[in-house]
Design goal:
about 90 residues, elongated, mainly alpha, 4 helices
């Protein structure tokens, strides 16, 4: 019977309920991986979970971007960095 680790269970956990929860979990995973706290198998599981969280966050951002574009319609204009500093008037 295979042994189940906490990191392995995290890798198969359901997606978070919100963008903020996903980012928080991702930050915790990255911190643990950077600290070298995880053995190799757990690191691979954490990487897999992190990849799932990144995809979830990207999808959430894309959904919000689509909603903003729909709400704003033709009012959206490309951002021009040179306009941001020209408030000398």
């Amino acid at each position: 019977m295979p042994r189940t680790s906490a990191a392995g269970a995290a890798a198969t956990a359901a997606l978070p309920a919100s963008f903020e929860q996903a980012m928080e979990e991702l930050e915790q995973l990255v911190a643990r991986m950077e600290a070298g706290e995880l053995p190799l198998e757990a690191s691979v599981a954490a990487y897999k979970r992190g990849s799932e969280l990144v995809k979830f966050c990207a999808a959430q951002l894309e959904k919000v971007d689509s909603q903003v574009k729909l709400l704003e319609g033709d009012m959206l204009k490309p951002f021009q960095a040179t306009d941001a500093g020209n408030e000398d008037d």
